[in-house]
Design a protein that fits this description.
Its EC number is 3.5.2.2. Belongs to the metallo-dependent hydrolases superfamily. Hydantoinase/dihydropyrimidinase family. The protein is about 30% helix and about 25% strand. Strand 7 and strand 8 form a beta hairpin. The radius of gyration is 21 Å and the shape is globular. The strands form four sheets. Strands 1, 2, 3, 4, 5, 17, 18, 19 and 20 form a nine-stranded mixed β-sheet that branches. Strands 11-12-13-14-15-16 form a six-stranded parallel β-sheet. A three-stranded parallel β-sheet has the order 6-9-10. It has two domains: about 80 residues, Urease, subunit C, domain 1; about 325 residues, Metal-dependent hydrolases (TIM Barrel), CATH 3.20.20. The structure holds N-(aminocarbonyl)-beta-alanine and zinc ion (2 copies).
Length: about 450
């Protein structure tokens, strides 16, 4: 057989092991992995001295999202271009249901844009804000049939009209269990946040630091524990997004130990920064929810990363331009919540591996393999025969300092400015096609395809 692509002499990394082998691709799929492959190929890449990794799956992004009085600054085009350049070959987006809207309406609204713009593959978790008198619970089965197998419930953003109450959350969780679907939650207590926000503003405490102070560790932990409580007692699956606090993390780990189907996601920003960033002059650029927490929480997250108790690392990519962040210069409650990250996710976790903090296999597991398993992406997440040829070639010796002009996403600043990374992706392949080559995006808008997912069994 003549292959389309043959990657020779590299070290293949999976979640389980690393080994030297050649890898061959035909029609977008991995068709052979072996000690030595010498058959003909359209294109041969010498990966000697390099790591060959599965493309990452950023399971938490907000592209073109109306939020905080504006729209997040990355379109599906610029956001997925950035993804490709950072070794991310699939993104999961979070479209938010407007009141009265059906799930399929919501998905179809985004469909044309994604088909036209996406440069990497994509899936969606649907954010449910309202059950439409129960219609949504019925419609969830249709969504699962269409390969949309996860739904998000915000336990926060009450004033914004996005929050669900506990009864709605529980109904969603029970329905998800019946359908083999997953409920993702953003856990923070909205009433405490609103009360504390009002109190600080009334006291003239308006800087970005008070974004953290209005939603500190225990505000997140309360909501984590509430959702975990329902998951445990009702025997329903639960995926907690952007976990940032130690107390909530410990509760989730205990629930796992007790046999509950609780999964934990954290994000690079919580692993890198603490709440101290909110004391900086540009602290508002780091405003996201939940906010970065104290050192104790960060240390606990790293321990759980290392010992396998955190399941995934994703970005919550939701950037806003400087002028938009500046709306909250004199009032932290007016700062649009969200930060960039999609292009830095994989390099950041691989840098941690390259510096010996975690094994490379663990970085692959957190950013690709576990995501594919938890969310039913059967063709994605690892380098093995029959999977999509979503491949990253990584140079352990290439040093890279993040600066905004080197990133491809559409924001005028990055919270990662100045971050030094030891090792960097040199090429990204999406289903066998080169989309990133040594600093340059070489893919095309519209290359990305919808990922139809399987329900959980
Ligand atoms: O601050 C954040 N995280 N913005 C995006 C929306 C969300 O809560 O995930
Ligand atoms: Zn969130
Ligand atoms: Zn988010």
């Amino acid at each position: 057989m003549k292959y389309d692509l043959l990657i020779k002499n590299g070290t293949i990394v999976t979640a389980a092991e690393s080994y030297k082998a050649d890898l061959a691709v035909k029609d977008g799929k991995i068709v052979a992995i072996s000690n030595e492959i010498n058959d003909e190929a359209e294109k041969i890449v010498d990966a000697k001295g390099k790591l060959v990794l599965p493309g990452a799956i950023d399971v938490h992004t907000h592209m073109s999202m109306p939020f905080g009085g504006t729209v997040s600054s990355d379109s599906y085009y610029s956001g997925t271009m950035g993804a490709a350049c950072g070794g991310v070959t699939t993104i999961f987006d979070y479209p938010v249901q407007r009141k009265g809207q059906s799930i399929m309406e919501l998905i179809n609204e985004k469909k044309a844009m994604l088909e036209e713009e996406a440069c990497v593959d994509y899936a969606s978790h649907c954010c449910i804000t309202n059950l439409n008198n129960g219609e949504i619970l019925d419609e969830m089965s249709k969504a699962v049939e269409e390969g949309i197998t996860s739904f998000k419930a915000f336990l926060v953003y009450k004033k914004e009209g996005m929050m669900v109450d506990d009864a709605t959350l529980v109904r969603l969780m029970e329905r998800a269990r019946e359908l083999g679907a997953m409920i993702n939650i953003h856990a923070e207590n909205p009433d405490l946040i609103d009360m504390r926000t009002e109190r600080y503003l009334a006291q003239g405490k308006t800087s970005a630091w008070y974004h953290y102070m209005s939603r500190p560790e225990f505000v997140e932990a309360e909501a984590d524990k509430r959702a975990i409580h329902w998951a445990k007692h009702l025997n329903t699956p639960l995926y907690i997004v952007h976990m940032a606090d130690k107390e909530g993390l410990e509760a989730a780990i205990q629930a796992k130990r007790d046999g509950a189907d609780v999964f934990i996601e954290t994000c690079p920003q919580y692993l890198e920064y603490t709440c101290e960033v909110y004391k900086r002059d540009n602290g508002r650029n780091f405003v996201c929810s939940p906010p970065m927490k104290g050192q104790e929480s960060q240390d606990a997250l790293w321990v759980a990363i290392k010992n396998g108790l955190i399941d995934t690392v994703a970005t919550d990519h939701c950037p806003f331009q400087t002028y938009e962040k500046d709306w909250g210069k004199d009032d932290f409650s007016k700062i649009p919540n969200g930060c960039d990250g999609v292009e830095v996710l994989y390099p950041y976790m691989l840098d941690a591996a390259n510096r010996g903090k975690i094994p490379f296999e663990r970085a692959v597991e957190l950013c690709a393999t576990n995501v594919a398993k938890i969310f039913g992406c059967d063709d994605k997440g690892s380098l093995s025969i029959g999977k999509d040829a979503d491949i990253v070639i990584y140079d352990k010796n290439k040093d890279f300092t993040v600066t905004i002009d080197k990133l491809h996403t559409n924001c005028d600043h990055t919270i990662w400015e100045g971050k030094q990374l030891h090792g960097y992706p040199v090429q990204t392949y999406l289903r066998g096609s080169l989309v990133y080559d040594n600093g340059d995006f070489v893919g095309k808008a519209g290359m990305g395809k919808f990922v139809k997912r399987s329900p959980r069994i």
